[in-house]
Structure formats: C-alpha cells, structure tokens
Specification:
This protein is an alpha+beta fold. It is about 50% helix and about 15% strand.
C-alpha cells in the first residue's frame, strides 16, 4: 500500500508538470467515458434491468395468431380468452386488459386520464400491492359489481394532493361514480412501458362471453414456475386447435403465439438501436484511448532522459512500467470523473428530448451499478491505453540516453510503426461512425421528403374522448355534429373534420371484407383494410384529394344507405383495372357502397407504404364509433390562435368533455420522425466527436514526429532541399497511414452498417456514394491535419533547426 501511495504521489507530481498534456488527455477520456456511460445507463434501465414485478421472467404476452399467416399477431376475443383461462394448466394466472382513456369530471376543469381496464386478477398475477388501500379482485370485476378504481401514485399526488383520505371517496369517470379503493406505489405501472393514471376492473357483458369475431383484448399470463415457455406454448396451441375444431367459422385458422414480457415490450428494433448506439459510444471511447496512448508515447519519448536517470539509480523495468501505468490509470480516473458530469448532463438532455421514444424512461438514473460500471471502464481503459507506452517507456538503456543529451528525444522505428498503427485505428473507427451517421442523415432527408399524401400547414388537431354510454346508439354523433358545425363557423377556420385516427399513427382497427358479386375468398386470405371513421370536412382540412366519385354529404346520415370512400391503395390491390365506384363491400353484417376514391396517406409512418383503407361516415357507424375521436381544423390564421374559440365551441355542446393532445399537424409529422431524429442526432454527435478526436490525433502525432525530425529537416534545407518536397514527404508518410486506415474502416463499415438496414429509408446500407464521399473527406482531413505541422516545420530557419536537440 505504501508503494502504491508513493506511485500515486509521483504520478500526480508528473501530471502537474505537464498541465497541457494532462488537460487534453482528461478531455479526450471524458468525451469517451461520458458518451459510453450515458448510453449504457439507458441500455441498463431499458434492456438489462428486470421488469418491476416479482419473478418477471414468468410473465408472458399471448396473441392470437393465424395458421395461414406465420407473421400475424393479433388481439384476443373475449370468448377465446375465457376458454384459454378455463382449459390451460400451465399458467398460474391469465389476465385480459385493454388500454383506454376516461374523463375525470371535477368542479373546475374536466381532465382526461390514461386508464387500463383489466380482469379482476390483474394485481394477483403481478403480485403487487398498494401503498394505501387495496387492489381490486375478481369479485370487483363481476357484472353488476360496484364500480371501483385504483390510482397511480402520480395521479394521486397531481390530482388529489396525496390526500390519504381519498380511499373510500367517489370520483366521476365518464359520467359514472367510481369508489377509489387503493393507490399503487411510486414507480409502479402496468403495462411497464406506459404511463397509466388509473386501473379499473373489466367485467364481461353476457354477449361478450360468446363473442369470438371481435378481437380487442390484450392478454398476459404468469407461467407456473416449473413450466418452460415452450411447454406453455405447446399446450396453448392444443387449446387453440380444440377451439378451431369447435368453432370453425370464428377460430378455424386461429392459433396462439406468445413472447416473454421483456421481448414483447422491447422489440428487436429497439434493442438493435440501443446496442448500436452503445457500440458507437464504445468506438468513441476507443478513439479517445488511442489518442491518449499516442500522447503517452510522445510523453514517454520526451522523458527518456528522466527514465534513464532513474534506471541508472537502480529502478528496474517493472518498477518503471508500474509508474507509467499508475499515471495512465490516474489519468483515466480523472477522465471518468469529468465524463460522469457529461454523462449526467447527457442522460438528462436525452430524457428531456425523447422520453416518449424511450420505454421505461421514468426510472432511468444513476445508481451504484452505473458508478461501478464507470469505475471498471476507467481502470480497464487506463491499463489498455497505458500498457504499451509503459512497456516502451520502461525499455531505456541508461548508457545510450545519458551519453549524449542531443539524443534524448530520438524515436525508434518500432515506436513510429506503433504510432502509425494507432492513427490508422483512429481513422478506421472514425470512418465506421461517419459512414453510419451519413447513411442515417441521407435516409432522414429522404424520409422528410417522402410524400405524406396530405398538406399539413395551418392545421390544428385535438382529441376528444366521449366515454361512458355516449357512443351507444349513435349518441356520439349527436355530440360531434354540433361541435363540427360550431367550429366550422368560427372566424379564421376554412375547414373542419374529424377522424378515428390521424395519418402517421399506428393502425389499430382493421377488418376483413367481401366484395359483392365475387366468389368468397379462401379462409385466411380474405381482403383486409383499415377502417377510419371520418366526416366530409376531414378530407378538406387535410387536403386529401377526392380522385373519383364524391365526398360524404349531409345525406349520408344514420338510417341512410351505407356508403364508404376507399383509398387508391385499396383500389390497386382489389380492383386492378376496374372502376370501384358503385361496388358493394360486405363488412361483417353490413354492406357499404363505394361512392368515391381518395388519395393515399401514410397511415402508420412515412417509411411504410400506404395500406388499403376505407373511410366510413361517422354518422353511420353508430355503436361502432370509437370513443376517442380526433379533430383536424384548417385555418387561415395562426392555428394556435383559434384554440380558445374551439374550446368554447366544445364546452357549449358538453361542458364535461375535456380537450387533450392539442398539436398542429406539422407537429404530428415531426413527432412521427422523432425516434429517427433522435437516433440520427446521437449517432451524428458520436461521429463528430470521433472525427474531432481523429483529426486532433493525426495533427498531434504529425506535429510530434516533425518536432523529432527538426534536425533532419534543418540538414535537408541546408543542403538545398525545396520546402515543398519536405511537406510532401511528411504528408505522404501520414497519407499512407490514412489510406490503410480508410481501407480497414470501409471493410468495418460494410460489416457494421448492415445493422442499420431496417432504419434506412430509401438508402442502401452499402450505398457506394456515401462510402466514397466519407472516405475521401476523411483522407482530405488527414492530409490537412498533417500538412499544417509540415508547413510550420519547413518555415524554421535551418540554423535554428540544426541547433535543436
């Protein structure tokens, strides 16, 4: 221990003597360790930490699948769920739930709450209790039972002031009275990646117990401890096969698939994204380490006389190497300390920018595990980048280095080759990052310019959730029609419409259909399209063109002949070469006549092609109309300026209805690109840091080598060598290293960028233009970084150069 303390004291003294070197090394390491720690913190919280439930490895998500379509995964019908519960022996619990929103009515302003309605065994399956009160039970979920609710900790504090007397009080949700029976602990949520305000029991109506054609439930289960996932899946497939035989019309092609809860929540794309970012951060750390290793090599060469003196006084090679390693590890720990500050700021900035794009963002933070990771990174990198300089520095012959002071700064071919290898490694690693960032940039630009099928400027959108029984028997239409009329009449409004789902949002409501007059399709291969409930003004507000036929009109009301509009994608797929106008489509028990064709819009995202869609007048959907509806209002004035009047229009029809998620259509489009933008921003930041470090490394090594060759330069100049030839000599030497590093980097990028293929829209992962342009740019930067010190060296007076040590 005494020897270690002495080594640390000597190391600190040596680092203080070279403040410039110490500061640059700490800065390089801070950038590398900060980036790595920030991304690892996110990866750890999202992918590595267990789900916040006891024995989370036993939790699985179950889907209905199709025997005719291996890629299909869908929601579950109530009747099938009941049979799954009754007929399986591999689950301790099976739970069905559906996310929804409810309106909390208060004495001041109504609010929208995010809710989950679940079967009564939800909390029993999760094995989670409340902080006050109790959870609901299967008895609370029986038909006709008193309405009860369980609050989240956040909703309890934000809306009820953390009042513990809330237990037993009633709240009004969607016009009905619910008794609050419990408050969940802070940090609890189900589903784990969602922010939920309130949980409600979900009783099944008698008609739902025989409902097999309506699929809307999400199902999770807890596998018994002694049962493997493969065994659970095998039995559930047997149950599904039994149901297929008993109910061939509804379940004839249906089976079951399941995923562990973790795999279901954090899909392959998210895991790939995060691990690629972590890999990019590690590359930055490696480049930083290479830079510091080069600095240490140069510093060791400059200290050869000092080391020779210590060796002559009896210090062995091992003792000298240990001293060098102590300095490098100490440098690394200092860099890690500074990197921790960068990581703290980086994580906070990341969450501020993209908490909605990162699942489980709310618990992300620093803990003992993160600090242990940072310390381990500091020690390992300190040894890694300091080992070779330590060995090189300790190999000193006192006779050679003390005999002639003018030779103290000389450098051997082995050191030069090693430095060249380090610079080549920097270039190769930087090239991988730069090519990845360039590909993402090119894809992002293509995505931004992708046709959305609508015009977004001067459009404001907002959501209204008509809950309770308001959607039964067409009563929802009696709310929306006068609201639309009032909004359309407002000054500055040019068009107003509504829809069940805006473009650039995930599809959620599709249905199979038949075309009247055609033979029935083979089971499992029926035509399928997305359903959107809309009004006539919706197409005008978003300027979606009517290509053929007509728009909806006031005559398309409840009780009138059923009509629909279809998009061009549906026509291309199911009516190629035909005029679809006048065709009749059979949807469930209803038959709709096609009266118009509209242009395609990107339904789920800009990178996915338009899917077949049909639009149905919201006035004709009756009880099918979903409770949450989105309004789109086009204005000739700044959109935000009309929102106060819009709120008044809604209140005038129903003062209990809150408006939520207010945003312009431009913001909707921007939000659909947010994950791409974040990914590009992070990888681009790492690439810029890598480029800056590589440039600094090339410049620093070239400057050092030129300084070491000052006498040689002086002799050449004194003998009449043109300065230009000396510049070419220096640049050519570094250019060879840059070319080798570029070749290695191109090979590495070719292998690594394939991981980005699923995130590249309209761009190949091996796009030759991107590879070539980035490679040439990096070579040009390397030439410039080596030319500057070469030019400076050739401007030195030969007499001065010949006198230099």
């Amino acid at each position: 221990m005494d020897i270690l303390i002495q080594d640390v004291r000597l190391a600190l003294r040596a680092l203080r003597r070279t403040p410039g070197f110490t500061l640059i090394a700490i800065l390089c390491l801070a950038l590398g360790t900060g980036a790595t720690t920030a991304i690892y913190t996110v990866v750890n919280a999202v992918l590595l930490q267990p789900l916040p439930y006891p024995e989370p490895e036993q939790l699985v998500r179950l889907y209905e699948a199709q025997t005719t379509n291996s890629g299909f995964r869908g929601s579950v019908s109530p009747a099938n769920f009941i049979d799954w519960q009754r007929q399986n022996t591999v689950f301790d619990e099976l739970v069905a739930y559906e996310p929804r929103s409810v309106n909390l009515q208060s004495a001041t302003t109504p609010e929208r709450l995010s809710a989950v309605a679940a079967t009564g065994n939800l909390f029993r399956m999760l094995r989670t209790g409340t902080q006050i009160g109790r959870t609901f039970t299967p008895e609370d979920a029986r038909q006709g039972a008193a309405h009860v609710a369980v609050l989240s900790d956040a909703a309890w504090r934000a809306r009820f002031g953390a009042d513990r007397s809330i237990i037993g009080r009633t709240v009004t949700l969607d016009g009905e009275q619910y008794t609050v029976i419990g408050v969940m602990p802070a940090g609890f949520s189900f589903p784990a990646t969602s922010v939920v305000d309130i949980w409600l029991p979900r009783p099944f109506r008698p008609d739902e117990l025989t409902q097999r054609d309506s699929h809307f439930l999400s199902v999770v289960g807890r596998v018994k401890p002694e049962i493997t996932l493969d065994a659970a899946l095998a039995q559930m497939k047997q149950v599904a096969a039994r149901l297929a035989r008993e109910y061939p019309d509804a379940d004839g092609i249906r089976t079951v698939t399941l995923l562990s809860m973790r795999d279901d929540l954090f899909g392959r794309n998210l895991r790939t994204q995060l691990y690629v970012l972590l890999g990019a951060a590690v590359l930055v750390l490696l480049i930083a380490c290479v830079n510091v290793a080069n600095l240490l090599l140069a510093r060791a060469a400059m200290r050869r006389r000092e080391v020779a003196v210590r060796a002559a006084l009896g210090a062995g090679a091992g003792r000298l190497a240990r001293q060098f390693l102590t300095e490098s590890v100490l440098l690394s720990l200092m860099g890690a300390g500074a990197g921790l500050l960068l990581a703290l700021g980086g994580v906070r900035g990341l969450l501020a920018l993209a908490s909605s794009d990162i699942p489980r963002a709310h618990p992300i933070g620093f803990d003992a595990g993160i600090f242990a990771f940072l310390a381990a990174v500091a020690v390992v990198t300190g040894i890694a980048f300091g080992l070779v300089p330590a060995i090189q520095g300790a190999r000193v012959d006192p006779r050679d280095n003390l005999a002639d002071g003018t030779r103290g700064g000389s450098t051997g071919r082995a050191q030069q080759r090693y430095r060249g290898a380090l610079v080549g490694a920097e270039i190769a690693l930087s090239l991988v990052l730069l090519i990845g960032a360039a590909l993402l940039m090119k894809a992002f630009v293509a995505l931004e310019n992708a046709p959305s099928g609508l015009t977004t400027d001067h459009v404001i959108t907002f959501h209204v959730s008509v809950g309770g029984d308001a959607d039964a028997g067409g009563a929802a239409a009696s709310f929306h029609q006068p609201v639309l009329q009032r909004i359309s009449a407002l000054p500055g409004v040019t068009a107003a419409g509504l829809t069940s789902l805006l473009p650039l949002q995930d599809y959620w409501w599709n249905a199979t259909f038949a075309i009247e007059g055609r033979p029935p399709a083979e089971r499992g291969k029926e035509p399928v399209a997305e359903i959107r409930a809309t009004s006539a003004g919706y197409f005008e507000a978003l300027r979606i063109p009517i290509l053929e036929g007509r728009n909806f009109s006031a005559q398309d009301a409840a009780g009138a002949p059923l009509v629909m509009l279809v998009n061009r994608a549906l026509v291309k797929r199911y009516f190629p070469g035909e005029d679809p106008i006048g065709h009749r489509l059979e949807l469930d028990t209803l038959t709709f006549t096609v009266v118009g064709v509209v242009g395609d819009t990107r339904g789920a995202s800009l990178e996915r092609a338009a899917m077949p869609e049909f639009y149905i007048p919201f006035t004709q959907l009756g009880s099918w109309l979903p409770p949450e509806i989105t309004y789109a209002v086009r204005t000739e004035v700044p959109p935000a300026s009309v929102m106060p009047a819009i709120r008044e229009a809604v209140r005038a029809v129903d003062p209990t209805q809150p408006i939520f998620r207010v945003e312009t259509m431009d913001e909707v489009v921007s939000r659909s690109l947010s994950s791409h933008r974040l990914y590009l921003w992070l990888l681009g930041t790492f690439a810029v840091i890598a480029l800056a470090l590589a440039t600094a490394g090339i410049y620093g090594v070239t400057s050092y080598l030129v300084t070491q060759r000052t006498r040689e330069m002086g002799i050449r100049l004194a003998l009449g060598a043109p300065p230009a030839s000396l510049k070419v000599m220096v640049v050519r030497q570094e250019l060879k290293v840059a070319i080798v590093g570029t070749i290695v980097g191109l090979a590495g990028a070719f292998a690594v960028t394939r991981l980005l293929a699923s995130f590249l829209y309209g761009v190949s992962a091996t796009d030759p233009f991107t590879y070539l342009s980035v490679a040439l740019t990096l070579i040009a930067i390397a030439i410039l970084a080596s030319y500057v010190p070469a030019r400076r060296a050739t401007r030195v007076n030969p007499t001065t150069a010949l006198r230099a040590e």
